[in-house]
Write a structure and sequence with these properties.
Elements (H helix, E strand, L loop, with lengths): L2 H8 L3 E5 L3 H11 L4 E5 L2 H10 L4 E7 L7 H9 L9 E5 L2 H9 L4 E4 L5 H25 E2 L4 E3 H14 L5 E8 L2 H8 L1 H21 L3 E6 L2 E7 L4 H14 L8 E6 L8 H18 L4 E3 L2 H22 L3 E10 L6 E13 L3 E3 L1 H11 L2 H23 L5 E5 L9 H12 L6 E6 L7 H14 L2 E7 L5 H7 L4 E4 L1 H6 L4 H17 L2 E5 L4 H10 L3 E3 L7 E2 H10 L4
Parallel strand pairs: 1-2, 1-3, 3-4, 4-5, 7-9, 11-12, 14-16, 16-17, 17-18, 18-19, 19-20, 20-21
Antiparallel strand pairs: 6-7, 8-10, 8-11, 9-10, 13-14, 13-21, 13-22, 14-15
Helix pairs in contact: 3-4, 8-9, 14-15
The structure holds ligand C2E and calcium ion (2 copies).
Length: about 575
């Protein structure tokens, strides 16, 4: 034991004997007076007075059960409910089994049966109870945050893990309570007021976990953490805390947020769960919208998935997990359908996750810029494919590549594509550039500048997904493009909705008027082909002719022709 503890043990402790029968008090005094200071009371009521007025702290209470005025059990109940006295150990003096049980349930530390055991036994039990309670107090002093009397993080984790161990099936929440701008609060209202506010908040939290079988800890100055049984209504809880702060503690300006980790699986360590709850707490605090937020496991999974994909991009390119597929664009303006060009579409065949659709990974890569690596890879592959087919078949099959919205911010974009063309040894006429309509929405001036530069270089520019954006007409009125590629959804809907059908026709008229080429994509049926043909669409892309396929399969299409 620590030095500290030894010093405490050398002091003469005070014991309160509560007993109505004089003879019993006498016997106990006889046994204990050599080692202890003794106080006495004849019933519970008197004992309460003694406890409250005693000048020295009372180290132990020896308590009879059957007494007039106020019995032992009632006294015990009062003492144990009182924050100030509940830590005083109580040994119950009794001869009835049922009272022993009741007393233990009420928090008695031990009991001594009447008639009394040998004096040595009584002394030993008394000493042991006092030692245990003092050890506990010392441990508690080290375990607890001094200001708010809550557990420190280390101990909190320990206890929370115990709760998991003994109640593995309980539904539990980790709640991090983050006080906003505590420093500012201290500066504005003074350090004492800040301390008072934190203590008040801690008291309210303790009361809450008491109701939900939980514990409270303090992580760092402005964070508390709760581990509690599942709380079903957090907005109610939030208002309850606010109300208590104001009405009971008169703390008016303390703002706080809650981050909640509410997942039943206990696979994550308590430590990790606290981290996640704290992360959520910081997020809501910064978002300034909600007051609390519950950790979203699905969102977390998605986030981890995203992070994984982004992390693996470089290696995936190196290891050739990405493959470029080609989808034919077929010219239907003449009697015979002929291959006009192809669109390069990327595929990710992941060694563990299998096939990942570009609809999944492209938006992720656009979020963080990784798309630039991927697109460069595709452009180069496509350029080399043009060259290979030219060598093999003796004529050029131009390939469209997709330019992402993000690529448009790259000042070097035009030069870079130019370099690929030169390096591979094809012509600017052989690589078409599909720029999605939404790419023009925000930075219209920059987009115009880039498209103009592409045009100067001699490239063919296609507006992809035409009609999907908010300013389609604006786009076509200021951009110098060559091809209008109608967004797929129009073709999909054209026979379901009269207005859409008319729109498809109007777009064809616009293209005619502007003298630009027209492409319809997502074409799957003969009916669509016939209608589009009659409206003046000359180039068709879609499953009707072929899905995007690997280069080798594409060659079969070339060789067999498109004479559907
Ligand atoms: P997108 O550029 O509009 O490409 C057309 C999409 O429609 C492709 O989907 C294609 O497989 C699909 N498609 C073609 N014909 C039909 C059809 O008849 N019916 C239906 N339902 N779908 C058809 P995919 O390959 O999954 O690509 C999705 C999107 O991902 C592309 O839309 C494009 O925005 C993006 N993407 C694909 N590859 C690349 C790339 O290398 N770079 C960039 N930046 N984006 C790419
Ligand atoms: Ca495209
Ligand atoms: Ca498209």
């Amino acid at each position: 034991m620590s030095k500290n503890n030894n010093i405490i043990r050398q002091i003469r402790r005070t014991i309160l004997i509560v007993e109505d029968e004089f003879i019993n008090t006498e016997i106990l005094s006889e046994i204990l007076s050599d080692s202890y200071e003794l106080l006495t009371a004849e019933n519970g009521k008197e004992a309460l007075d003694v406890v409250k007025t005693a000048l020295t702290p009372i180290s132990l209470i020896l308590l009879d059960i059957n007494m007039p005025v106020m019995g032992g059990l009632e006294f015990l109940k009062i003492i144990k409910a009182d924050e100030k006295y509940k830590r005083i150990p109580v040994i119950v003096l009794t001869s009835e089994k049922q009272s022993e049980l009741d007393a233990l349930e009420l928090g008695a530390a031990d009991f001594i049966t009447k008639p009394y055991d040998l004096p040595e036994v009584v002394i030993a039990r008394v000493r042991r109870s006092i030692e245990l309670s003092e050890d506990r107090m010392i441990i508690q002093a080290a375990e607890r945050d001094e200001l708010t009397d809550t557990y420190n993080k280390h101990v909190f984790i320990e206890y929370a893990s115990k709760i998991d161990l003994y109640h593995p099936d309980d539904e539990t929440d980790v709640v991090v309570v983050g006080v906003d701008k505590l420093n500012l609060y201290n500066e504005l209202y003074g350090r004492d007021a800040g301390d008072y506010a934190l203590r008040s908040l801690a008291d309210i939290l303790k009361e809450i976990v008491r109701k939900h079988n939980g514990i409270v800890g303090r992580l760092r100055s402005e964070y508390f953490v709760l581990y509690t049984n599942r709380i079903s209504n957090y907005s109610e809880l939030m208002s309850e805390i606010d109300k208590e702060l104001i009405e009971k503690y008169n703390v008016n300006n303390l703002r706080f947020h809650l981050g909640i980790y509410q997942v039943d699986s206990k696979e994550e360590s308590v430590d990790k769960r606290i981290d996640l709850a704290k992360q959520v707490c910081d997020e809501v605090r910064n978002s300034n919208k909600e007051k609390y937020h519950i950790f979203d496991q699905e969102a977390q999974k998605k986030q981890l998935f995203k992070e994984r994909l982004v992390r693996e991009v470089k290696r995936a390119i190196e290891e050739k997990q990405f493959q470029v597929y080609y989808q034919p664009k077929v010219n239907i303006s003449g009697n015979k359908f002929v291959l006009s060009s192809a669109e390069a579409l990327i595929r990710w065949i992941h060694p563990e996750l299998g096939f990942i659709s570009p609809g999944v990974f492209i938006p992720i890569f656009e979020e963080n810029g990784a798309i630039r690596l991927v697109d460069r890879f595709v452009w180069k592959e496509a350029a080399m494919q043009v060259k290979k087919w030219k060598e093999k078949y003796g004529y050029t099959i131009p390939i469209s590549v997709n330019i992402s919205r993000i690529d448009m911010f790259d000042k070097n974009l035009v030069n870079h594509i130019r370099e690929i063309i030169d390096e591979v040894g094809i012509s600017v006429k052989d690589l078409y550039l599909e720029i999605t309509e939404s790419a023009y929405n925000n930075e219209i001036d920059q987009a115009v500048a880039i498209v103009e530069k592409f045009k100067e270089e001699g490239f063919t520019v296609e507006i992809d997904d035409f009609g999907s954006g908010y300013s389609s007409l604006n786009t076509i009125s200021i951009l110098p493009f060559d091809v209008l590629k109608l967004d797929m959804k129009f073709v999909k809907e054209m026979f379901k909705n009269d207005k859409t059908f008319k729109m498809v026709g109007i777009v064809a008229d616009i293209a005619k008027y502007l003298k630009v080429n027209l492409v319809a994509e997502g074409v799957e049926t003969r009916e669509q082909v016939v209608a589009l043909q009659s409206m003046g669409y000359n180039i068709i892309q879609g499953y009707y002719f072929s899905k995007p396929v690997p280069a080798k399969e594409f060659e079969l299409l070339i060789e067999k022709g498109f004479g559907k």
